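<goal> How does this chain fold?
<sample>
Here is the protein in question

***
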Amino acid sequence: MVNRIHFYLRTRENRTLITIERAVISDAGKLTEIMKTAFDEEARRWLPNQEILDYNIQPPGYSSIEMTKYMIDELNYFKIIYNSHIVGGIIVSITGKSFGRIDRIFLAPDHQGQKIGSRVIELVEEEFPEVRTWDLETSSRQVNNHHFYEKMGYRTTFKTADEYCYIKRKESSAEIERLTENQDLEKTQYENCNMSQTEFYQVNAEGSSFSNSNLMNTHISNCNLSHSKFQNINFRHSFFADLNLSYSKMRLVTLAGAHFMDTSLGDDEEPISFERCELQGTTIKNSSLRNMRIADCDIAGMTIDDIPVEKLLEVYYQEMKK
């Protein structure tokens, strides 16, 4: 959980005051409103064909207050304050000590073009001085973003017809101990090694395997784990968020005390299937259950809006006999 200690970083330019401050839950409504306005304006500018999906211009959940609350709780979410008014936000993820990622940055349309964004980037870098590598993605369509990030010292590492990936490396005044960089370690085997607090960044570990190892308190962020296999793993008290689990299979999984929030079926809208599952005492609230099918299940004690399902079925069958 992010520690919501407030701090202020200031600069005076043309008699204006630009600050960033750690966002709190009470800011969620305002920040969601500004984010939606900002990203919708970007979509109008760069997506004349509204049928095109570009998640760098309109990221998933950008108009959801629940998504904003999640990011405030779990990420480093700062509100941007311009002359005492909230005018935008910047969200960053810090992995380990040395690696940071700008997940989102947004400004109200009427406050863009005033050098606020560039100063905010500087303030975030000052707040995390140990981070020596920053990365981010932006839409290939947002040409203004390309110029902005390049001006801020970022360079392109990868680009497609839809997306540009950027990286910025900062010189570190402190000596970096045990830095292994640009090495070919393919097919290396590690056994009985102490690798606690090891950091991996831009590492190709495709096809790797971990067995009989302690990975407690591991932080995995912005990684491709598609087609991976997890078996006989202790995930107790782990946190899973902002994941794509489409078409995944879970078998012989213990979910005691598990809590699912703000979960959707994604663009494909393929239904979830539960088979031979023990879901006794499960609660489903504020959810869409349209076209949900329950068959051959023990429904003793099951209620819908406090109405016993057994009673509903009893009435139904009585009506069918008439």
User: Anything to note?
Assistant: The CA atoms of residues 222 and 243 lie 10 Å apart. The chain is about 20% helix and 20% strand.
